[in-house]
Each structure stands twice: as C-alpha cells, then as structure tokens.
C-alpha cells in the first residue's frame, strides 16, 4: 500500500481490517505478514495514524537483525517510553525489570513472571489513554522478547491495549507459533500496481512502465523505487543485468542494486556514518524508533537523507534508515576493512555494555588479542546466565580464535565444548574440543565433551566412566595447576555417570578417588556425591546442605540449578525450588542449555507428580520426551518414558505403563543404566499394586531391594518402601513387611526427607500389632508438617480407615476413608478410589456423602478457599497471603476433602453452604 494525498491504493481489505482492529472495544493483537517491500510498514503507519486520530497513545518499536541474539533488546524498545509507569510498580515487579534491563542484580525472571509485569505496566499506561503498540520487522526481535510479546498478546482481552506486529513471510520467527491472529498482506493486483505506478510516476515511457510492472510483480516498494533508475530504452543506470528480466534473481537483490547506486555516490564520511548505524542496528522507517543512546547516532548524514536513503525520526530528530534493505545494502557494499573499522568505533561507543562491546570487538579484530578474547569470555558468561547458551558457544569459540597463548585457546575451546554439550549441540561439542595433548593422550576437555555425548546420546555409562576416571587421575598425578574448572566438570560428570549406573562397586571406587583429591573437590560436588548415590547411608544432613547451597546461589549458571535440583529431589525438598526451576527453564527456552532444560523438565514433572498435579505432570513429561527425542538425547528420552510409565501406573493406565516400562527396560538393562531399570521395576510394582495383583507387586518390589534392608546405591529402594510393605501384607508376608518397616526406622529415614518420614510412619503403622502403636504412627504420618504428598497420604489413610473399622468400629473409620476416597478421585486414580469407596461402604457410609460436616476449615484455609473461589490462581493467592504457590496448593488439597468437592469450580457453592462459624 502507498498513501497519496490521503488516498490508499490497492489495500482496501487490509485498511478495513485495521480500522476495525483499532476502533474495536477491548484489547487484542494482530500480526501482519507478507513479503519484503509489499507494504507492511505503510499499513502499520496507517494503523498508527488511525489510532492517533482515536486519541490512542502509539508506541513504536522495530526488530533489528543486529540485535536478534541479545535477550530482551526488543522488549526494551517497547518499554523505554513507559519507564515512568515501571517506577510506579510494587517492589517485586519493579525488580523484575531492573534485572531484565541491567539496572539491578538477580536471577532472570520467567516468561510468565515478566509477561505479567509487562501487562501491569501496560495497564498503568492505558489507564490514562488507550495504547497501541506497533512492532515492525518483528522477525528480527530476539527470542526472549518474542516470547514475552506472545504471552502478552494472548492476554490483552479486556484491556485498553492493542498490539500490531509486522513480519516478513520469508523469515521464520518465534511469532509464527505465538498463536496470535494474523492478516496476510499479499502483493498488489495488476490493476492496483498500475494505479500506484501512475500516481507516483506519471507519464512513464510505455516500455519502461511495462518493464517496471513486470519486474515489481506487485511489490509496492519496487513500484516506487525502480522507475527513476531505469533509463530510456529500459536499461538500468548502473547495472544492466539487474533489470534484464532474468527471473532467477530475487526481488530484494534487485532493489539492493538500486540503493547501491545511491550509496556509492555518497562521500566517505557519510558512508562511514551509515555503516556504523547499520552495524549497530539503527532502525528502519519512522516506525522503528529506539531509545536515544542505545544505538549509534548518525551525524552529518543529510546527504543520505536528501537522496532518499534516510528519514528523520519526528520524535527524536535522529536519522533512521528508510527501509531495512538500505541498511543491509550499506553493509554488503562495505569492504572488510571498512566493516572492521566501524565495529571498532562501535565497541568504543558501547564500552559500558559487556555483551554489545564484545560483539563489536570480535568483529573488529583479526589477529590474536587477549584483551578482546577476555571480553568475549565475559560476555559469554553474562549471556549464559540470561538463557543464551547457544550465543555463548559462538562467543567462546571466537574468544579461543583470538587467544594469544595456546593454553588459553585450549581452555576456551573446552569451555565452548562444555556449553555446546549442554546446549544440545553434541556434534559441535565434539568438534570444538582441543586435540591430543603432548604424549598422545586426550585433553581433559575432550574427555568431558566426548563423555557427555556418549552418556546423553547412548547411555554409555561404562566406557565414559573409564575415560573420566582416567582423566581425573591424570590431572591429580600431574598437578591440577590451572585446571580446577575442568577438574570440577570431570568430577560432576563422574558423579552423574555413577548416578545413572547405580553400581555399588563403581560408587565405592569413586568415593575412594575423590578422597584422594581432598579439598580439590568443591562443596557442591560433595553434596552431589552424598545425595545422588546412596541417600539411605549418606543422606544425613544433606537436606540442610542443599537448602543452604540454594540460598547462597548468586547468578547461577543453569547446570548449577539442575544439579542442586537433583540433590533436592533425592531428599524430597524439590517443591520449594520449583519456581526457580520454572524461571530457569523459561529462560533457557529456544537458545539456552537444552540438555539442562530436559533435566529441569524432569524435575518439574517429579514435583508435579509428588503434589498431585498429574495432568500437568503428564504434559511436562511428554514435552521432555519430545525435546529429548528431537535432540537425539536417548538417555533423557528414556528417562522421560520411565516417569511417564510410573505416572500411568499410578493412574491405573496399565497398558501405557507397561509399554513404557518395556521400552525403558529393553534400552537401559543391556547398557547397565541401573537408575532407569529401577524406575522400570518401580513402574511394574506400582501397576501391579494399582490392579490389586499383590503377588506380582511383591516380586517387582524385591527386585529393587529385599525386605529388611535397602540395597546400596539403589535410589528406588527407599522410594518404594510403602509399596513393598503393602504388597507383603496383602500376600501374607507379615514378617517381611514388619522387618522392612523396622529397617526404615533403623536407617533413620525420617531424618533424611519429609516424604520418607511420612511413609516410614505409615509403614510402621501398617505393620504394628499393637493398636496403640499403630494409632501413634498413623497420627504421625497424617499430621506431619510435610504431609503434602497426596498419593502416599491417601494410601496411608486408606489403610488407617481399614484399621479403625476393625478396631474401633465403622463410624470411627468414615472420616479417614472419606478423605482417602476424595483424594484418589481428585488425583485421577480410579482403581484406588474404587477400593477406597468399597471400604467406605463397608463402614456404612455413602461414598458420595460430603465430608463437610466432618471437618472444619481453619481461618487460613477459609481465606485461601475464598480467594480461589473468586478465580485467583495459586500464585496470585500466594502473593496476597505471603505464601508460596506450593503452600497454597497444599492447603487447597486439605480444603477440598473437607468440603466434599473435587475441583476448584465447586468451591463457591460449597463455601456458600457452610454454616456460620465453620471457618473458625
């Protein structure tokens, strides 16, 4: 589209759609997509003019290719004009922006956290007047900003904010999957093309007119720009081939030739200014404004503006490129030396910006330069913490190329390979590692890269362990010197390999090896050593060490979070760190540490399973399986299958459970991946228990550990404590059941983790012959401060209800059985729920009877229930009551059975039926 004296040409459909978009009540988003030069920018300007006529405030931004890898650069453009509103936010939301925009320290927020904060800012801004956000060239926006814009765009309904985005159809973008409404902008029809050409270039020679129409093919920019550069006779002024009609030349290249003639005619000083602006991502078009000071400011460029290459931003008065093609043509026409000189100048301009300065220094430098290499290394460390592991690999590789000393080059290549492995770039990691060291052996960095690849891709725990052990012994025997970082990586990798192998002999050799290293083993690695191996024998005090380590984290790298997360899982305190994991996962999405993201997904799924969010857990597990499969990380893929199988077994979906169990077992057992074979055995145990096949459950359970003891280094041994005890009791093996419960107490499992405390008391209660002892332990299990594991708790309550019916009569059992029944129903465990309902019927109560009359709500439970009934999320409730979302969830799990309901939707009606004083 082109506007001539208020008249639009050929865009009536798009104009009508935009008019409806701008004037419609409420907030919404719309994406315009079409080829380069087709007229999207003009349509965006048309919409902006309409909005200003409707007294909207218009905020413009533009994606620039030079910043497409800098996290949140695009979001900063949008929000810079709204900074006064950010300062009006509460401390929590204001700190989110301080972290993202480099004004403060802290962990980067998740997409959801940042998106909610952005919505708050937009709401404040729109409270004064309706707001239109206009984004041109959205395909160049950085991934982080796209995710936030997509999140915000899907949640504008009911607000006074609108988002309008222009995208090139020929460039893939995160907006392609953002699920925002789209409006295609096709090329102009033949009739509209002729009309536009005649309006802007009347009186053209018929031959030239025909040639322009044929070459433009409905592209508005070509129709406007080509005619002045086609001389009489239909040949171009500077390049006859450019308009020869050759069909294989893409339109943008032909237009670049047109701009190239004008650029070449400029003076050296002006071309230098244009080149610096282009390399620094100065915007294109009046819709592409940037906050002053964040881009190079082109000066003395009036000559370029006079020949139509630049426009003047009406707000800032700065020069901007007339079209993105001008910017790209400026760069293409410059010589390598000219580009390097421009980058060097830009590095001086951005000397306070670690990442941007390093980017320009790297492009400006040819010969090895240790200062530049160190700057790139610092930039890589910065971007890793912001979810840019893939970018960091490139910067570390370039830093290695510019290193002056061989040892520094080797170290940086090793760092690049390490990050590449965690970014899911296993092939690149192998190619990056340094070659053989003097004497013919492999460098420690190459061992790290190769072992990670062997472990992730094929679950090779045997040979990878041998190579890693040899590398550690070599470093120890020859002096660690400057290799502390590599040694730490080797130690942590060895511990990870041992965890997956779950081999007692290998673990004992590892303990002996680490003992010889003494203080060279970091404190965090000592936590992993004790938590990842045999938590029964080495888990005392680990929970406190994990909590202290998490509390001390400052600007952690993603793998630091996941390693501590694995330790937290083994001592059952993972839930309190799920928000941190989710933020880290959101940050790593797309361009971060993909292998680490898979571990984060595993951990989030495990916590969802633990707290009873089984639907969410299934989605998380499938997401992890898809991600791992797409990256050929077969270890993580089968790890995800193992958890999906275990979840299916808990839900009574035996066919699904056994299919996953068989696949995991067939892959893991020949490789010696004991961690996964134990999960497969646990899946078989759980499936059999759910079906009521107690003999099969017992046989599966003793395959993990025999009764009366806990097999060393078998992580599922303590986790299946309740399973073995129940299976043994139901098959008449009372002595074995009691021996196993006593062994749990003897091993002091309740001191290791809150979950183990609950199930140990449950096992002792189920196996006690003295009713008083049984009652004591049932009480301990059901009132434990950490009794927030609904599946295990419901099973203990079911057993308790049966015990009460037999010892105290039917009436005494009803409340406990009702609570168990409703929990199973809420979880979606139909087989367990039916078993519990049968016991409830035996106790003389209707399984459909509400338990509201049997229990009262505490003041805090009533307050949480009221807020949930009003539609607030757990996170929003937590913010109001200064509780964590997980604590809110735990309270609701206790509230639901008290009210006799199974869903949030029933809360309002149930609360309305409560008598006065019920919330005392």
Automatic annotation (TrEMBL):
Pfam families: AAA_16, GerE. Keywords: ATP-binding, Nucleotide-binding. It comes from the Bacteria. SUPFAM superfamilies: C-terminal effector domain of the bipartite response regulators, P-loop containing nucleoside triphosphate hydrolases. The keyword Iron-sulfur does not apply. Coiled coil: none annotated. Residues 850-915 form the HTH luxR-type domain. InterPro entries: AAA_16 (IPR041664), P-loop_NTPase (IPR027417), Sig_transdc_resp-reg_C-effctor (IPR016032), Tscrpt_reg_LuxR_C (IPR000792), WH-like_DNA-bd_sf (IPR036388). PANTHER family: TESTICULAR SOLUBLE ADENYLYL CYCLASE, TRANSCRIPTIONAL ACTIVATOR DOMAIN. This is AAA family ATPase.
